[in-house]
Specification:
three-stranded mixed β-sheet; about 20% helix; 9 strands; alpha+beta
Length: about 110
């Protein structure tokens, strides 16, 4: 049996797990957080483990943190409760039912 290779079809099989896929878009490398999804709201918290955060212009704001004397409610990282990682704002893709939250940061391949 003869097998003719096609770079277009065989490309995924030649990429090792250590190499990054140059075809992968920027938004596919980001952690997706669905803002209005109940499970994502339980998984992703503010750095002080509150679930009362909201996205704002290129950062986040937590109402519970803002109520504490001497604590700023503004923060730049979400905590992933599953892994324990702190994710910078530019490392997450915030999705709403209407699409990306901040189109300039959460671009899905099209123009902002």
């Amino acid at each position: 049996m003869l097998y003719f290779q096609s770079a277009r079809l065989d490309y995924p099989f030649y990429v090792t797990s250590i190499q990054s896929d140059p075809v992968m878009s920027e938004c596919e490398r980001k952690k997706t957080v669905r803002i209005e999804d109940r499970h994502d709201r339980w998984r992703f918290t503010c750095p002080r483990n509150h679930r009362s955060w909201e996205p704002t212009n290129h950062h986040f704001w937590c109402s519970k943190c803002a109520r504490v004397e001497g604590v700023d409610g503004v923060f730049d990282e979400l905590r992933d409760k599953r892994s324990g990682d702190l994710l910078q704002r530019d490392e997450v893709l915030l999705l709403t039912p209407a699409g990306p939250y901040d189109r300039d940061l959460d671009r899905t391949g099209g123009p902002a």
